[in-house]
Amino acid sequence: MNRDVMVIGGGVVGIQAALDLGDMGFRVHLVEKKASIGGRMAQLDKTFPTNDCSLCILSPKMAECSRHPNITLHTHSEVTEVTGSAGDFGVTVHTMPRFVDEGACTGCHECTQKCPVKVADEFDMGLRMREAVHMYFLQAVPAVVSIDPEHCLYLTKGRCGICKRVCEAGAIDYEQQESEFTLQVGAIVVATGFDPFDPSVLKPYGYGKHRNVITSMEYERLICASGPTGGHLVRQSDGKPAKRLGFIQCAGSRDIKHNRFCSSVCCMYATKEAILANEHDREVRSTIFYVDLRAAGKGFQEYVNRAQSEYKVDYVRARVAEIMQDEMECPVICYEDTVTGESRSETVDLAVLAVSLVPRRGAQELADVLEVELDEDNFIKTAPFSPADTTRRGIFACGYCRGPADIPESVAQASGAAARAAEIAMGSLELVGGRVS
Ligand SMILES: Cc1cc2nc3c(=O)[nH]c(=O)nc-3n(C[C@H](O)[C@H](O)[C@H](O)COP(=O)(O)OP(=O)(O)OC[C@H]3O[C@@H](n4cnc5c(N)ncnc54)[C@H](O)[C@@H]3O)c2cc1C
Predict the structure, then answer these.
(1) Which atom of ligand 1 is nearest to the CA of 357?
(2) I need a labelling partner for 148 at 20 to 30 A (CA). Which of 189, 284, 310, 330 fits?
(3) What is the pLDDT of residues 9-22, one digit of tens each?
């Protein structure tokens, strides 16, 4: 039995699993595709149902992970091959070059300030521009920059080189190459999360055509104090404050043409987003157009009740047919009130689509590498009465990659998966058939 364990995916869930395993005394390899750990939670402003600041909770966990003596972070990395079996897997990790010496970079941002290239910032959902040499976000872990090889002038055209000249630490390294290494681990925990569904295929909603129709992820960045507008909720067409908001639920979810499942967190995060808007500006009025309201978690119904009574949030049971826009580029939400059966419309400053949350792009490729099965919605298949166990023994799944779940539930799953992985890595359980008994 090998006492090393691998965690794939460094969102809040992978971080929790890594910390639990590290604290138990296992050596943990945390493999993250992006330049920083943190995942989607790092992009959120506050979290329901307590409205705690998302990064205030996440940042200490990220820092703990990077300082933990038993945890090694492998950023810019992906798993490409798994051999062996439970208790002794051989895992090949492919690492893309950062073009920056992680040990030397001080995160001073001298290079980012001088870089002449501007491209849409993925972390800010394209609502802000960033440089080719950049830090993934301000609180990134590791707190070092990386160079985007698709847009760097030196790497694409052999000219510029400013970042190297201004870096007093000598951290820029244009010669860095892709690398591959193999690790022996006893168990693997998968926590690769979700991607937001692209709503431009929902043609009647006008996303991508009407500038004031945005997604819930874009909204999170807009309302965040460290986001592209400094937390000012403004219309995308003219930068004026948005006073009337319309939240359109189930955009791509519970829809047999797109994703038949319920994304499970949208009713609550729309409620949170409407509350936050009213906290920022008491004049803001929000309407949530819902199919049916799913407020099943602890304290969730009370949260919805508070949104109605204290923050003047209106809930309309409706099916939104179309979003048009008037001459001021205000979205006009056309819907059927499913209580009265009447057709109505409401004009707002910003329409926010609660887009479906789907398995990560590449979920099938990763499943093939790990030799685990996916379910009919492409989430990782797990055992009903042993919910962290995948179809391959020694490999466990937790968080959004195994099915829709909010942060508290996902973090509990992470601890469950970590405990199962620990059992295998310790060799304390007998392996029977296809599953640990
Ligand atoms: C708009 C919005 C608002 C929300 N608000 C709330 C809220 O207020 N409260 C709440 O409880 N929940 C909220 N949620 C849900 C919450 O975001 C998720 O429950 C949570 O982020 C799931 O965490 P995760 O670690 O499973 O996934 P993620 O956060 O997606 O992290 C997965 C990580 O794995 C990495 N990864 C992916 N593929 C690979 C690979 N092949 N190899 C290596 N690494 C990989 C990714 O880069 C990422 O870092 C909200 C969701 C949305 C969309």
Answers:
(1) 53
(2) 189
(3) 999 999 999 999 99
